[in-house]
C-alpha cells in the first residue's frame, strides 16, 4: 500500500519493482528498478527536522527488502540502501543510515545512525549503532558494534559469505519477475 505522509509526499516506485500488497510505503520513499519489497515490510518517511524538511528513504536498484523489515528515520534524516543489497526478514534500519552496495543485513538485525560500507555482511540479530563500518567487513551474529568498537578486531567478509549474499540478491531478483507476472492474480 502506498500512502501519502502528512507533508504531502507520496512514494515513487519504479514500474519494474515489486511491492507486496501487504507492505506499506509511506511518504518520501524512492524505490528504484527491479526491487523486491516483501510481505509486511514498512518503509516510512514522515518525520521532519527542525526546519520542517526531510530527506528521502531510497532503495537502490536490484535490492530486496524482505518480510517484516522496518525502515524509518528520525527527524527527517536520510536512509539510503545501495544497489544489489539484501535486508533480511524483520531487520530494522533506522536513519539516519546508509547501507552500501552489495551488502547483506541479516534477520532481526538493527542498524541505527550508521554507515554500512559496500560488500559488508551483518549477520542475524546483530546491532550496528552509531558507527561507520568500512567496506568488506563481517559482523558475526548477535554482536553489537558501536562507536567504541575496535573495527580492526572484526573479520573481513569471506568468499563464502560473499557468495551467500550474492545468491540471496539473485534469488530475490528472480522473485521480482515471478511476482510481477502474478500481480494481477491477487
UniProtKB/TrEMBL annotation:
UniProt keyword list: Acyltransferase, Repeat, Transferase
UniProt xrefs under Gene3D superfamilies: Hexapeptide repeat proteins
InterPro entries on file: CA_gamma_LbH, Gamma-CA, Hexapep, Hexapep_transf_CS, Trimer_LpxA-like_sf
Coiled coil: none
Keyword Lipid metabolism carried by entry: no
Family membership noted in the UniProt record: Belongs to the gamma-class carbonic anhydrase family.
PANTHER family hit by this protein: CARBON DIOXIDE CONCENTRATING MECHANISM PROTEIN CCMM (PTHR43360), CARBOXYSOME ASSEMBLY PROTEIN CCMM (PTHR43360:SF1)
Name of the protein: Carbonate dehydratase
